Amino acid sequence: MVNVNTLSDEERLEATQELSKAVANKIRYLQTLATAIDNKDDRLIYQLIDSDHYSEQIIQAKHGSADTENENLVNDTTAKLSQYLSANLLAYLAETYPFFYFEQVDLGRFQFYFGNWWDRRLFGELDVIKVHFDFNSTEYEKLRRAFELEGQNKRLNSDKIAMLSNQADQLQALIDSQGQRDEEKEKIRLQLKKVAQEKVMPWETSKLKEAKQQLVNQLSDLSEQDEKSQEAYRLIKDNENKVLELSKEDTLVGYEKQSVIAKFGTFDAFEARCESLYRDYMADLIATSGRVNTNE
Amino acid sequence: MNKEYERPTEVFKPNTLNVEPTSSAPTLSTSGRLITYNDQLKDSLDNGYHFTELLDQLITTDDAATLFNAAKMLSTYQLDTAYLTFPQQYSQSDFYLIFINRLLALHDRERVILQSSDRYGELYHEFPGINSAGYFIFNLENSVQGGAYYTEKTTGEALFYLSFEKHTLRFNSRALTQLLLVDYHDKIEKNALKGFETYLLDIGNYLKEDYGFDIDFTLLDPSNNAVYQLADANFSSSVIDQLFVEAANGGRMLELSESGAPILKLDNDIVVQLLQDNGDESLGWTLKVYDQQHEVAWFDVLLRYEFLRSWYLKNLSALEVQSDVLYFN
């Protein structure tokens, strides 16, 4: 049993005041947020909804004015907030990353493609709240690797393509040498016939046998090559398709590289900008008074 | 003039008539026969005289309608009759050639040269700049549909079908591609090929303007509204992958339009667009070429851009622009 009468009046009053204060605090938080939204003060909204991240990034102080409990109040509103904040953010990104093409997939959710060329790659998703690109790691890695290979004057798939071309040449050679093989086979068959008819002394039979076996082996080697050459046409066709795929990827990544270089100069600079995107964007919001005009 | 006409004139004697008179012979008196014979001769002479009138018109008239009528009549004219044959004659297909020259001359655009071959006894067309490679004649279509095919003599490529009767002109994209983009590609100047294309377009345009012909220009159609129908519209996207790669090698980017269709921007605001699904998925891919002046056709683009030409030729089984199957297959 709980004794409800254990609190003194004084204590009860204090508890009520505490509660009232706590609720008032939440109201104040929500009121501030509502005003920020009314004023289209995106920077303040960012600060309010994730103060921890904000202070870490902007004030460079850890846990400066964390208000996580209040922030939890809008947890179930993230998609709507994200949708609202995306308007200004996308306008900013269009200038900073002109080669990213965003596509809305759901309320407040955006994925982006790299470029506007044929078969462009889906490059990742945008985290509007965190002002952060969640890159598709496979695609991102390809781009990074392409920059790395630049030093060696190679494209992403240069080696693979060279290998496949080499294979294709060999296959073609196999096809082209069919006539030569046919001649050789004929020669060996004649030799075999001759060997079969040869009469030798008993102590020479093993030597003869050996010679015969050698000829048979040669013949089967040639037949094996014949079989391979039968397959060669199909393999060459497969090969061509693979080379096309790889060349396409090289072309795609090549365009991506050019885009990055045109805007940022180097891949490192591009990465650094992505790293500081949140800070840069907050600074931009301050500089442009919250891009108020674009958020109509 | 055809050799077969170079035989001596046959002389018909009344008593060796090798044709049945129209009415039954036994009932005719001798004088009746003579009269009939004489009437036949008169008709034949009239027929010959009418022919010369039409030929006069074909050669000299300045009136488009008269010209057309003369060509149409002459293209099926039977000059010889059982009673009268003319040893020196032009063949019916020659009148098509003459007509083309005269039509273009009426518009001051006669660029093709009408030559006569002593060796083969026929007329032919020579086009300045490509005459080293070939020459052109009309081949009569002998089936009921009539008309004639404008054909390059040495290769046999039939470039278009023309019918006065049906007011129809159909270009043959396959022959045009083979002759102008493959056979002539390495031996003829591009300017000459372009000039020849303009000449072909002139023929089509004047037939349309002057006589209301129904024309299928196929890959020569410069209108932005032209939708080029392709041989296998449901080709795999690897065909476009190839274009993407070859365009990049040719210094161009295959982009996506706002609607997501692949487009290729070329010089002078020329845009090549591949379109899928014109509201109906079964239509597959089609091709369009835009330019501000409505002057550029798919053919022009192929002629000018080597990477497009090689892509088109490599994937002809999918990309070949379709011609009218009624006349070409």
UniProtKB/TrEMBL annotation, chain A:
- The domain of life for this entry's organism is Bacteria
Coiled-coil region(s) = 205-232
Q: Give the keywords, sorted.
A: Coiled coil
Q: What is this protein called?
A: Exonuclease SbcC
Automatic annotation (TrEMBL), chain B:
**Basic and acidic residues: bias regions:** 1-10
Q: Which portions of the sequence form the region Disordered?
A: 1-27
* Biased composition annotated in UniProt, kind: Polar residues: 15-27
Indicate what this protein is called per its UniProt record.
Answer: Uncharacterized protein
